[in-house]
Each structure stands twice: as C-alpha cells, then as structure tokens.
Amino acid sequence: MPTTDPLLLRLEQQRATAGLPRGELDWLLAHGEIVHYPAGSTVSSPSAAIAGLYVVLDGHLSITVDRGAGPHRVLEWAPGDIAGILPYSRMKGSPGDVKADLDTEVFLVRREHFRELTRECPELTARCVHIMLDRARVFTSSDLGEEKMASLGRLAAGLAHELNNPASAVARSAEGLAKRLEDFDAAARAVGALRLNDAQWASVERARTLCLAASGRSFGHDPLETADREDAITAWLERRSANVTAAYSLAESSMTIDALDELAESLEPAALDAVLRWLVAGCAAAQLASEIEAAASRIHALVSAVKGFTYMDQATMPKPVDVGQGLRDTLAVLNGKARARSIAVSLDVPADLPRVQGFGGELNQVWANLIDNALDAAKSQVAVRAAPVRGAVAVTVADDGAGIPAEVKERIFDPFFTTKPVGKGTGLGLDIARRLVRHHAGDIAVESAPGRTTFTVTLPAGGGGA
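-> structure tokens emitted (466 positions)
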C-alpha cells in the first residue's frame, strides 16, 4: 500500500528514523507531534525539564554550556538528528541552553511515552542507545577540555606570579650590574695609576678575597647585625676621611675591621679611598652576577617543572610514571598559591616508590585538582604523601580545613557541583579526577572531619622499578 501520510514520508526520509519497521513508524505517528521553534528561541534550559525526544525535521539546534568561563557550544543538531532526552538516559535536565539557531521544526515524542516506546519500538530504542553513548563521549571530552583549560588558566596565573619575581630580579640586577661595571672600570684605572708595590698588592688581594667571598651566599647577618657592622665601618671610614658610601656594601660582605686596618696600614690615605672604591665596585658586580645566576636558575627550574607537569614533547601512550616526580612538579607550579595563602605544604615520597603504568599528564591533572582544592580549604597546612600499599601506590592529600559537611560529601564527585563562588570553580575538577583515576584502574576516596580532610588515590603499581 503506497505511503500517503506526509509526516510519515518525512520520518522515512530522516536519517534517525529511516528504515524503521512500519509498525514503529505508525507508533511514532500516533504518539508524537510537530513543534515549531522560531530562530533564537529556547528549546530547553537547565532550569526546566526536557520535554522529550526530538527528531529534527528542519532547521538547526545547538546547546551551549557555561562552566564558569563563558558559554561554550558543545553539540549541534541538523535535520535528521535526534535531540532532547533519550530512553534509559539518567539525565533530568539539560546541562545547558538548547536554542534554535534557525526556524526549526521537530517531531516530539514526550517523555511520558518512553516506557511504551522502548516496548513497541525496539529498533528506534537501539538507535537511541547508540546516540546516547556518542553524546556521552562528546560531553566527557568537552568536560575534560573545559576543566583542563580552567586548570591551565589557574596554573598560568600562578606560574606568571612565580616567574615574575626571578624575572624582575634578573632585570633589576642586570641594570645594576651595568652601572657597577662602569664604576669598576673607572676605579680600576684609578688603582692602576697608584703603582702599588708587591706588599701593597698582597694586602689588597687579601681584602678582595674577603669581599668576593660574599658573592652568591649569605653570611647569616641579621638586619640588626648588619646595621651594627655598617655603623662600625662608617665610623672607621670617617676616621680616615674615606668615602663612607662604601660602608653598606662592606657591611654586607665578610669584611672585618681587622682586615680594613691591615689594608689602611699598607696604603696612603688617597690610595686607600681608590682601592676601597675598586673593591666595592668589583664585589658588588660579582654579587649582582650571582643574583642573576640564582634568578635565572629559578626560572629554569620553574620551566622544567611545567614541562614535567604537562609531559610536553612526550608521546601520548601509557608508560611507567614516576608519581613522586609528578607530585614535585605539581607542587612547583602551585607553590605561588601556597605562598600567597601562607599555607605550609609538605611532601613525603620514599625513594623506592614503585612506578605506575599510565599517562603522566593525566595523573598530574589529578594531583593538581586535589592539591589546588586542598590549598583552598586549608587553614595553615597541606600534607602530600605517597607510599606503596600491597601492590599499589597510594597518594594522600590532606588539609587542616573545616572539613566537608555530610550533605556536601555525597555530591563532591558529581559533575558541575561546586561549593566555590561563580567563576572560581567549574564543578568538574573532582568528577574528572575520578574519571582519570578510573582510567588508570585506580580508586579515589575521601575522609573528612573538622580539621582534617584526606583524599586518597590508589593506583596499581607496575611498569618498572622505582
């Protein structure tokens, strides 16, 4: 019998419903309805229940989700696609706003008919299950990407703060070094003109050795001691009519009054002033060079920690992972936040900790989420520990915060659930941490009481020795 119903013809031409048995198509015609949505209108939102299953006949739909960083388009539906809620789905509301991008016409089967739909339309139900699995993969990938970007933003802000101090020190010391080298050059010419004898040069070299010994290390002078030394050296210089501006630099070094007396005994007053200027300029230049080296080494260490944290330039395949190094790299990139909040962070990792087989970048994402949350919750301390436990590696992250209320504890691993202010958290960190741990055949658990909250991640050991 030829098909005469225009709606039946349209359903037979849609990708999602083409080829369905005639009985299932007849059931859909008896239980569905045509709904029109003007361009720009809202089809569903997080605040309202989804009406049912939509077969898009004409137009275009899309869903945008805001996880704290602005709306992000996650999925789109064109003619022939199935949207809305699907049979067997546990979803109650839309995770975002579904809007009609164009004038759109859909065939709607309301959710109250789903029980009968699964019984009367097994072929359509099977297709919906496949669509649901594909949709879950898309949302999982999108969630992970969103959380990684949010986490990257937080880490980048902390890293920028961490790099700013040594970078500023390099710039400041380099500027001062240029001036000191000019002073040193002028003082060296003045000292060269003195034509000192061997005995005088020997005295000058002993003083220079004491001054240079200060470069690159601290002599433990506290501010009061330095002030006292500066006063004593200033008085010594004044008695000999020497330039008192050298007092501070000499007080910062290991120079002693006895060494200065020895120098003064071997030189004429005019020569003493020129030699002191040369000593101070040379030692100050060496000290500035040492500060530049220390600051540059700090920058290099931070960059190395970031490369280790992200597993940059390494193949994305499972391999033996050094959990201890991952924890150290993670703490290095989060150190700025800990210092800003005056949180003391301890790390305890045994030297013989077994490796785990997996993806280092993913595990570092887990450590970053747990430690970042602990820093937010802690009053004064965060303790990170890794240890072998019966063929596995257990990592604990503990804080001394107020604890997690029982009603919150039941939901902390739920997607989009967060206790942080808007814009501070996506509600995906712990959900994704749990997914990544399970991806490594591991387990994550939490214990909490006032003053002590501990997250424990247990991963199978394997993939080589410590």
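Residues 122-192 form the longest helix (71 residues).
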